[in-house]
Fold each of these.
Amino acid sequence: MRYVSTRGGMPPTPFCDILLGGLAPDGGLTIPEAYPRLGREDLARMRPMGYRHLAFDILTRLIDDIPAPDLRRLVDQTYTAAVFRNARPGENPEDITPVLTLEPGLYLAALSNGPTLAFKDIAMQLLGNVFEYVLEHRGERLNIVGATSGDTGSSAEYAMRGKPAIRVFMLSPHGKMSRFQSAQMFSLQDDNIHNIAVRGVFDDCQDIVKALSNDAGFKARLRIGAVNSINWARVAAQIVYYFKAYFAVTRSDDEEVSFAVPSGNFGNICAGHIARMMGLPIRRLILATNENDVLDEFFRTGRYAPRATADTRHTSSPSMDISKASNFERFVFDLVGRDPAKVRELWAEVDRGRAFDLAGTPLLGRLREFGFVSGSSSHADRLATIRRVRSQYGVTIDTHTADGLKVGLEHREAGVALVCLETALPAKFADAIREALGCEPERPAGFEHIEDLPQRFEVMDADVDAVKAYVAARCR
Ligand SMILES: *Cc1c(COP(=O)(O)O)cnc(C)c1O
C-alpha cells in the first residue's frame, strides 16, 4: 500500500515515510493510492473477531512496511482493557469500544474509555506506540509541538508520556480550558512532557505552532513533528471501530447500519467514509455540527465556505468549534473522482479564504451516493438531548455526543440500526451537565481528585521567539 497526495504532487510513498510528516510536500493530504476492498468472505471472517484481532486485520491492509508480527505486537500492546479501562458499569472493557443499546435499533458506541475520556485516545494511543517503534528503528528522535483547546493535547500527552525518543510541547490558552482538562494535562510529571500555557486564546497558540512549522530551519534542526488531526495514521486507526460497531449491532452482513458522528475537523467521519469505501455496509453517514455549521451547510447545499478563525463561535461542545475542517480535503478527493487537478482548483479558493460551491454540478448528487447527510445542533438542543437521554435511558452523555444524537435521530430511518458515536465522557464537561441535569457527572475511578494533584506548566506570552527559545533550550 502506497500513499499519494490529494493534490497529485507526491510520488507514491510507503506508510512509514508519511507517518511522521504533516501535510504532503505539495500542501495536500496523504491518502491511500487505492482503498483495500473487502469481500463477503472477509466480513464473515471478521465478524467474530475481538478488537485487537480486528484492528490488526484492517491495519495490515493499510500498513505493509511494518513487518506483520511487529504491527500485531503494537496493536496488541495498545488495545488492552488496562489502557481503555474507563468503561461504564455493565460495559465489557475487553471490547475497547463497547456498544450500548439505548432502545432496539438505537445504539451508543462508547469510544471514550481511554485514559483521557475522549475518542481521540483510540488513534493517539496507537500513534504513540507506532511513533516510538519507527523512531527506534531509525535511531531518530522527535519533538512534537502542538496547540490544544482541550482534548487533543491531553490525548497526545497521555499517548507519548514516558517515551524517551519523543518530547511533547503543548500550547494551550492560559485559564481557558475546563478545570478538569487543565488538571489532566498539567498533572503529568513525565520529563518528556512540557505544557506551555499561553497568555491568549487558542488561535494565538495555533498561530505560534504554525510560525514554528513554517520556519524550515528550526523545524529540521530540532526535528519538530506534529500529531494534528491530518495525520493519516489517526484516520486509519479510527476505521476499526466502525467495523466493530457494525458487527455488534447486526446479525448478518446483509444488514445496513447508519452512523451519527459529532464532527469538527472531519477526521472521525472521514474514517467512516473510508470504512464504507472498503466495503462495510454503511447506509448513512450522518454528520453533526454544533453552531459552527460550515460542514452542515456543505452537505445540505454543496457550498463550502470555511470561516475565519476569529468568527468561530465558542460553544458548550468546544471540541467541535472548528471553522475549517482539516481532513475535509480527503473526502473531496474521492468526491471529485480522485482528480488532483480538481482538488487543486477548489483549494486554490479555500487557501485564499474563499468558498467553493458545487450546487448545480453533478457532484452535488454524488454526496448522497457517498451516504452523507447532515444537520446542526444548538446549546438548547444539547441540554434537551442530555436530559432526554438521561430520563429515557438512564445514561448520561456529554455535549458532543448530544449533538450527534440529536442530528442522528433527525435522519433515522425505520428498520435501519442507528449507531451514535460517543466522542467524550460527560465528566470532561461538568458545567454543561450541571446546567442540563442539575448534578455533577459521574467520574470514572481514579479521576475523583485530579484537580488537587500538583501541576506542572509554564505560563508564557503569545510570543513566537520566546516559545522557540523555550523549545530549543529543552531539545539540547
Ligand atoms: C475532536 C473531537 C470531536 C471532533 O472530531 P473530528 O475528528 O475533528 O471531526 C468531537 N467530539 C469530541 C469530544 C472531540 O474531542
Note: The mean pLDDT is 95.
Amino acid sequence: MQKPCLLSCFLFLFFFLVPQLSFSCPPDQRQSLLEFKNLLTQTIKNHSTTAITLEGLKTWRPNSDCCKWQLVRCNTRSLQVIELNLNSLVPSGSVSSSLLRPVLRISSLATLDVSSNFIQGEIPGDGFVNLTRLVSLDMSRNSFNGSIPPQLFSLKTLERLDLSMNAIGGTLSGEIKELKNLHELILAENIIEGEIPPEIGSLTELRKLSLKNNKFSGPIPLSLSKLTKLEAIDLQNNSISFEIPDGIGSLVNLSTLSLSRNNLSGGIPSSVQKLTNLKTLELENNHGLSGKIPTWLFSLEKLKILRLGGNKLQWNKNGSVSPLSKLTHLSLRSCGLEGTIPDWLKNQTSLLFLELSMNRLEGSFPKWLADLKIGTIIMSDNRLSGSLPPSLFQTFNLSVLSLSRNNFSGQIPDTIGGLSAVMVLMLSENNFSGPVPKTITNAYRLLLLDLSKNKLSGEFPRFSPSSLLAVLDISSNEFSGDVPASFGLFTIMLSMSQNNFTGEFPQDFKSFPFLIHLDLHDNRISGSIPSGLSPSLEVLSLRNNSIKGSIPEDISNLTSLKVLDLSDNELDGSLPSSLGNLTGMMVSPTSNSSAFSFMLNFGIEIHDLAVNWKNSKQGLANRNLYLYTLLDLSKNKLRGDLPASLGNLRSLKLLNLSYNDISGLIPQSFGGLEKIEVLDLSHNNLAGEIPKTLSNLSELNTLGLSNNKLTGPIPESSQLDRLNDPNIYANNSKLCGMQIQVPCYNATQREPPEEEEEEEALFSWKAAVIGCPCGFLMAVVIMYVVGYFSRPPPPRRSLKNREGFKKMKASSP
Ligand SMILES: *[C@@H]1O[C@H](CO)[C@@H](O)[C@H](O)[C@H]1NC(C)=O
Ligand SMILES: *[C@@H]1O[C@H](CO)[C@@H](O)[C@H](O)[C@H]1NC(C)=O
Ligand SMILES: *[C@@H]1O[C@H](CO)[C@@H](O)[C@H](O)[C@H]1NC(C)=O
Ligand SMILES: *[C@@H]1O[C@H](CO)[C@@H](O)[C@H](O)[C@H]1NC(C)=O
Ligand SMILES: *[C@@H]1O[C@H](CO)[C@@H](O)[C@H](O)[C@H]1NC(C)=O
Ligand SMILES: *[C@@H]1O[C@H](CO)[C@@H](O)[C@H](O)[C@H]1NC(C)=O
Ligand SMILES: *[C@@H]1O[C@H](CO)[C@@H](O)[C@H](O)[C@H]1NC(C)=O
Ligand SMILES: *[C@@H]1O[C@H](CO)[C@@H](O)[C@H](O)[C@H]1NC(C)=O
Ligand SMILES: *[C@@H]1O[C@H](CO)[C@@H](O)[C@H](O)[C@H]1NC(C)=O
Ligand SMILES: *[C@@H]1O[C@H](CO)[C@@H](O)[C@H](O)[C@H]1NC(C)=O
Ligand SMILES: *[C@@H]1O[C@H](CO)[C@@H](O)[C@H](O)[C@H]1NC(C)=O
Ligand SMILES: *[C@@H]1O[C@H](CO)[C@@H](O)[C@H](O)[C@H]1NC(C)=O
C-alpha cells in the first residue's frame, strides 16, 4: 500500500505546493505586458492634454504577479498568460498598431481581444508567428488597414477570427484553407475585394461566416455547401453575382442567410425548402433576382425574418399561402402584389415590421391589420383607399407609419393622439381632408410628420415647446388661419408652402435655434421679415406672399443661408449692401458642411423645394440643396442701386432681381459671380453700359436684361455671344452688339465662339440635381429610417453609414 500513498503525496505536492513555490507569472510575459502598458500610456499622454488614466490597467504594476492583473488570465497550472481582454482601453484618438508588438511576444496566448481601441496601421503580421496556441483573435472595431497578413493563416489552432469594422483591403487569399479549426470568420465592414476563395470549403468546422459590407464580387463558391456546420452566412452589401447555388440546401443547420444588396440573379433555389432551421432569409435589393416567390417559404416553421423587397421577384398570384411560420419581419416591397392586402397576414400575430410598399395593392386598410399592433408599417406607393381605421392609432407599438402615395381619404381620426410611440408618420399624397386633430400634439415621440399634398384644412394644431418634432411638411394642403409658429425647440425643417395661411410673419420663428429650412411660399402671409432669425437657416423661401417692409440690414447674420427666395412680395426699400456678406453664398458647396446632414443622417427627406429656375418652376431635391445657392428677390418694389457687394457671392447660381424698381449701374463686381448660371435683372431701371466684366461669367446661360435703360455695347465672350435671343435685351435704350445684330459704331470683330464645353458643364449640374423621381427616393428614405429605428447603428460607424447612404442615393436615377 505504498504506491497510492506516494502518488497522493506527489499529487499533493504538485497541486498545492508547486503553484505556491513559483507564485508569479513568467517575468518575460510580465515585462511584455508592462511594456505594452507603457507604450499605451505614452501614446495617450502625447495625444491628449488632459490626463487619462487607463482604469483597466491600474493593477498592472511592476513586481506583482501578472496573473492577478485585471484583463489578464493565466493557465492555472502553467501560470502562463493565456487570455488578454484588452478591448475598449483607448478612449479616443488613435494609436499605432505597433503598440501590439510586446503583447504578441506572449506565445502562450489562446485568446486575444484588442477590439475597439482606435488602433490604426497595418496588422503586424510577423508578430503572430509564435502564437501557435491562439484560439480566438478579436481585432474588430479598429482602423487596421493594409491586407490580412498571411501569417494569420498559419495559426492552425484558431477557432475564431474577427477583423470586422476596420479598413482592411486587398483580397481574401486561398490560404484561408489552412485555418481548419475555424468556427467563426468575421471580416465584415472592411474593403476587401475580389472573389470569395473556393478554398473556404476546407473550413469544415465553420459555423459563422460574415463578410458583409465589403466589396467581394464573383459567385458564391459552390464549395460553401460542404460546410454543413454553418449556422450563419452573412454576405450582404457586396457585389456578389450569379445565382444562389442549389447546394445551399445542404446546410441543414443554417439559421441565417443574408444576401441582400448584391448582384445576384436567378431565382430562389428550391433547395432552400430543406433549410428547416432557417430563421432569417434576407435577399433584398438584388436587382437580378427574379421568378416567382415560392409559397413554401411560408412553411418554414422557424422563419422569423423574411426580406425579399427590391428584386424582380414576383408574387405568385395563383399560390395560396397558409403560413406555418410566425414572422416578425416581412418585406415584400415591389414584389408585384395585387388585389387587397393579403389576409393570410391575419395570423402573423408576431409581426413587428411590415413593408408592402410599391405594389399594386388596393382596397382599404383592414381593421384586422390595425389590430395586429405592428411597430413599423410601410405601405406607401400602392392604390389603397378608404379611411384609416381609428384602432390603427390606438396602439403603443406603432413607431413608423408610412402610407404616402395611396388614395386614402376621409379625416385623420381623433385617436391619432394615442400614438405614444410614433416617431415617423408619413401620409403625404393622399386625399385626406378635414382638420388635423389637435390630439396629434400628444404623440410626444413624433420626430417627423409629413402630411403634404392632401386636402387637409382648418388651422394647424399648436405643438408645445417641449415637442420633439424636428421635421414637418404640411405643404400643398388647404390649411388656413395664422401661420403656425408654435413648435418644439428642436425644429429643423418647416415646410408649410402652398396653403392658405394668413397673418403676419411670426416673430416666433426666431425661437428655433436649429431651424435650417423654412419654406412658406405660396401663402397669404403679411408683415415684414424680422431680424434675428436663426443663423443656422440654410433655406428661406417666402415667395408669393404679401410680405412688406424692407430687407433687414442684419440679414447677413444668416451666415448659412444658401437659398433666399423672397420673390413675389411687396418688399420695398433698397437692397442692403449686407446681402453681399451672406457667407453661405460665397463658399463652394461641400456635401458635409450642410446642416442637412442631420436629416440625411436620419434618412429623412421631404418634398422638393420649388423655386423659379430658368423661367419655370422647378423642384430642388432637398438632399441636394447644399449644391444650390440662389438669391431671388424678383417681383417686389425694391428701389435704389445694386450694391456692388453682391459681386462677392461667388458661389451663387441664380440671381434674380427682375421686376423691381432698381436703378443705377450694373456694378463691375458682378463679373465676380463666377458660378452664376441664371442672372435676371430685367424690368428695372438700370442704366449705363453693361459691364465688360460680365464676359467672365463662363457658366451663364440664362440672362435677362430687358426693359431697362441700358446703353452701349453688349460685352462679348464665348458664353455671352451665344445668349443672342433678342428678348434678353429688348426694351433698352441704345444697346448694340452682335448678339442683337445691331452693329456698334466702334465694335471690334471677334472670332466665332466655341460651343460644346460650357453647355456640358451646365448640363451635368442640372441633370444631377433637378427633378428627382420623388417616389423612389422616398422609398429609399423610408427603408433607411426604418433601418435606423429598428436596429440602432453601432455608435462609431454612423459616419460611414451616412456616407454610404448618400452614395446610395446619389446613384439613384
Ligand atoms: C511621446 O512623446 C515623447 C516626447 O515628445 C517621445 O519621445 C515619445 O516617443 C512619444 N511616445 C509615443 C508612444 O509616441
Ligand atoms: C518567435 O520566437 C523565436 C524563437 O523563440 C524568436 O527568435 C522570435 O523573435 C519570435 N518572434 C516574435 C515576433 O516574437
Ligand atoms: C495605413 O494607415 C497608416 C496610418 O493611418 C498610413 O500611414 C498607411 O499608409 C496606411 N497603409 C495603407 C496600406 O493604406
Ligand atoms: C455597404 O458597405 C459599405 C462599405 O463597403 C458601407 O459604407 C455602407 O454603409 C454599406 N451600406 C449599408 C446599407 O449597410
Ligand atoms: C446541427 O446542429 C446540431 C445541434 O447543434 C448538431 O447536433 C448537429 O451535429 C449539427 N449538424 C451538422 C451537420 O453539423
Ligand atoms: C452583375 O452580374 C452579372 C452577371 O449576372 C455581371 O455580368 C455583371 O457584371 C455584374 N455586375 C456587377 C456590378 O458586378
Ligand atoms: C393561374 O391559374 C389560372 C387558372 O387557375 C391559369 O390560367 C393561369 O395561367 C395561372 N397563372 C399562373 C401565372 O400560373
Ligand atoms: C395560419 O392560418 C393558416 C390557415 O389559414 C393555418 O394553416 C396556419 O397553421 C396558421 N399559422 C399560424 C402560425 O398560426
Ligand atoms: C383661402 O381663404 C379665403 C378666405 O380666408 C377663401 O376665400 C379662399 O377660397 C381660400 N383659398 C383656398 C385655396 O382655400
Ligand atoms: C447680427 O450680428 C451682429 C454682430 O455679428 C450682432 O451685433 C447683432 O446683434 C446681430 N443681430 C441680430 C438681430 O441678432
Ligand atoms: C461685411 O463684412 C465686412 C467684414 O466682415 C464688414 O467690414 C462690413 O461692414 C460688412 N458689411 C455690411 C454691409 O454688413
Ligand atoms: C466708341 O469708343 C470710344 C472709346 O473707345 C467711346 O468713348 C465711345 O463712346 C464709343 N462709341 C460708341 C457708340 O460705343
Note: The longest helix spans residues 27-47.
